[in-house]
Amino acid sequence: LMAKSKRSISQISTMSNSAQGNIIQLEDGWNNVIKTGAIDVLERTLDNGFDTSFEPKEYIRIYTTCYDMCTQRSPYNWSRDLYQRHGETIEQYLNNT
User: What is the pLDDT of residues 15-36, one digit of tens each?
Assistant: First the structure.
């Protein structure tokens, strides 16, 4: 059981860029993962019906990227920027619908 839990923890660490010491830049994470992989998909789902959904692996990848971007050390902690961008994007969507 102990070997299995150690393996699981190490596998989870490899998913995390912060755990590997890689910095996720704001534009890269926002444009390439969060906006295209989550927000755009959500907007299409809301516009076209709920026939699409996030696959668990995709959800974990997006969540992990967002988490990592919000927990990186300054000056690479993007929590404020991501919060603002999420709010602006949702507000823009609601105003245009």
Answer: 455 556 799 999 999 999 999 9
How far CA 84 is from CA of 8, 64, 78, 96, in Å, comes to 34, 19, 10, 18
Sole residue written with tokens 């393996």:
7
Q: In terms of C-beta density within 10 A (0-12 exposed, 13-18 middle, 19 or more buried), how is residue 57 classed?
A: exposed
Closest Cα to residue 25, out of 83, 88, 82, 90? 82
pLDDT value, residue 74: 95
Q: Tell me how far CA of residue 28 lies from CA of 22, 31, 36, 56, 66, in angstroms.
A: 12, 6, 11, 22, 11
Cβ pair 69, 37 in contact under 8 A: no
- What is the DSSP code (8-state) at residue 75? T
pTM of the model: 0.74
Q: Which two tokens stand for residue 82?
A: 């991501």
